[in-house]
Amino acid sequence: LKVVHYLNQFFAGVGGEEAADSSPSRLEGPVGPGRGLGLDVAVTLVCGDNFFGKHEDETLIQLLSWLDQERPDVLVCGPSFGSGRYGYACGTFGREAVRRGIPAVCGMDPENPGVLASEGAPYIVRTEVTVAGMRDALPKMAGLARRLGAGERIGSPEEEGYLPRNLRRNEIASEPGAVRAIEMILAKLAGRVTTEIESQPDRVSPPPPVPDLARVKLALVTEAGCVPHGNPDRLPSTRARAWLRYPLAGLSGLSAESFESVHGGFDVTAANADPNRLVPLDVVRQFEEEGRIGALHDFFYTTTGNGTPVATAAKFGREIGEELIAAEVGAVLISGT
Amino acid sequence: MLECAAFAFRDVVAGRTTSWTRGVLELNLATLAETAGREPGLIEVRAHVVRPGEPVRLINVLDVVEPAVKIGSPGTTFPGALGSLTVAGTGVTHRLDEAAVIATANLRQFPNPGGPDAVQDSVVDMAGPGANYCRWSSTTNIVLDFDCDPTVSVADIDRSIRRATLRVARDLAATTVDIAPDLVDSFAPAAVDHNLPAICVILQLESQGTTSDTFLYGASVDGMLPTFLDGREVLDGAVTSGAYHWASMRNPTYFYQRNRLIRSLLDADGSRLRFVGVIVTRAYFMSAFEKSRSAFLAAKLARQIGADGAILTTIAGGNSHTDTMLTCRACEKVGVRTTSILAEMGGLTDWVAEADALVSVGNTEELVAEWRPEIVLGGEALRNRSAFDAGPIPVRNYLGATSQMGDMRLKAVEG
């Protein structure tokens, strides 16, 4: 089993905070905590925590090219405990390695920002906040790395002691879904409610009415897949995983020559003949002129709303909402399809 | 009472005639192709035999049908869709076990009123990692690869392909009409025991126009109100498929014929539960009003037939998941408890608080490890690349992999 190990400047013995700006380096064999893993660490990659944060793109290119040369069975990062900058580097590097087909194991405290940066790609073993947790963390990380590298099946977060990755992994159940459904309904009728998919609540309470529309800035938001003609930013027709923002300043309406819908969930023929029916800029401009709304926000926000999981849609809402609040928008008109 | 008589399928050999001898189907592929090509708009049909373990990838897969024929009245097989109208679900039906007729055609070359995304990639791998996700990697398949007249409408082509496929399935099974079967499944009505919990199925069928449609006794379920069926009707050819988008989440005709949910309920009827029937509903109504109305009427019907519990199935995803959730809510509201079978598209696109008992049939977004087939049938290209490319394919492109009638064993778990 060939292992590559990632450490920051401190654990690699380069130096403390004064060496946090050191650039990436490649060392043969295990170094520091790598010796305690009990694995065959071929190469140790090192980078200063500040350097990684300040030069993330170029650092990743360098680290990934070393990884490409080695083609290890598994990458181990850290453990980084509660250290935010180190954890961020571990989570980010681990994520990119996994996306290139190399399994990765990190170790950190659940509150470490590296957990978020990892986006659920690598496995992250739960550790203490401080380096006092080293003795406990290393064998757990090594065990998981050994099995991952060997291509073995990894159990649930509870069974294995890694942090939930918010991923839904497929496995083959012992019975087909039909048989499980019959058992589930009979159990439910007998008073035992079970489920294989946890609740995904996203109940939105209607907000109070806007007190005086003539005094607020209004923003236009849509899930209708409305984009500039030609879809320059390649918004997907379904399963969008991001939203986009386009300027409205100087426009009195959306012309069929300039805008279109790429939504894959409805027949867009009529909408494309008049994109104002996707994002009602024409009417809203008129309202603005008549003083019925205070002002129109200079951008509209768009995504494709079909095939979007509730959790993803809620994330879009939070992100767009933050921008709108920062821009002092007081009301939003959302056009759905 | 329905008797499904199974003939154990051992092999298929090319020959001069089409006949059945002790588990071996002799097949005249040329005659078969000629029979299949008789419908209008079909230029050429190539017939292939594909066996488990062969390094073959099928692409542009439309429907899959189990060879089946009605004994005594072969002209009523698949009533309405192929044969003359009669009530399905009674009498004797012969079927070839572990054999399937698979139709492939590139319908994306036709303008589609449902837009360019209406027909999606649909793959069956006979070997490699994808085979684990395919029901038909373990059956012997007679593949009908259709070349279609590009000047004919997609609606006419689709009707021709559906009829041709059902006809071949019927004719193959018809080789057994005078032969004693290897095994007979009898689906007789059980004695009614009112102490047992009454369970119904609310079977969701897709309809949103040509290439996204399902047929009940040969007619599209577009506009259909929730309708009551005996489970045996579904097993016996009353429901046929013409729905070709998200491959893993749709139900080919084979899954209605072999329906694991209905079969299991019929098996348990009278012992563990009382199976009170199937309510078929249409998914993909376009307005909130129509969706709510259909959900409300399905729940009303479930209550009327005395169901204590309903198992809700789903077809395709997104839009139809809202139909499932509304039906779940409507049932629970009238006191019919529910379990729903759902595929996860990286998560659920809709959810109601009443949906507290859900069966997961897998995450459609997971990538299946790469594999390079030696032979590709049904075309050359997936939507975005060559079908010979070894790159990974998402689960959602494997036909039937996450059947939301629960025919497969895939399941998504945390991790």
User: How many whole angstroms does the radius of gyration of chain A measure?
Assistant: 26 Å
Number of strands of chain A: 13
Overall residue-averaged pLDDT value of chain B: 95
Structural class of chain B: alpha/beta
Taking strands numbered 1, 2, ... along the chain, how are they ordered across the largest sheet of chain A? 2-3-1-4-5-6
How would you explain this protein's 3D organization?
The complex is a heterodimer of chains A (337) and B (415). Chain A has 10 helices and 13 strands. In chain A, helix 2 (56-70) crosses helix 3. Helices cover 32% and strands 20% of the residues of chain A. Chain A has helices at residues 49-54, 56-70, 84-99, 113-118, 134-149, 157-160, 177-189, 269-273, 281-289, 310-326; strands spanning 3-8, 25-28, 41-47, 74-81, 104-108, 123-126, 168-172, 217-222, 226-228, 244-247, 259-261, 295-302, 331-335. Chain A starts with a strand and ends with a strand. By secondary structure, chain B is an alpha/beta fold. Chain B is globular, with a radius of gyration of 20 Å. Chain B has 7 helices and 26 strands. The termini of chain B are far apart. Chain B has a 6-stranded mixed beta sheet with strand order 17-19-14-20-21-22, sandwiched between helices. Chain B has a 4-stranded mixed beta sheet with strand order 8-9-1-13. A 4-stranded mixed beta sheet of chain B has the order 5-12-10-7. Chain B has helices at residues 29-36, 154-173, 231-235, 253-257, 260-268, 288-304, 319-333, and strands spanning 2-8, 11-14, 19-21, 24-27, 42-50, 56-58, 61-65, 68-70, 91-97, 99-104, 124-125, 140-148, 183-187, 198-206, 212-216, 219-220, 227-229, 239-243, 274-283, 309-312, 337-344, 358-363, 367-368, 375-377, 393-394, 410-414. At the A-B interface, strand 7, helix 7 and helix 10 of A face helix 5, strand 20, strand 21, strand 22 and strand 26 of B. Strand 7 of chain A pairs antiparallel with strand 26 (410-414) of chain B, so a sheet runs across the interface.
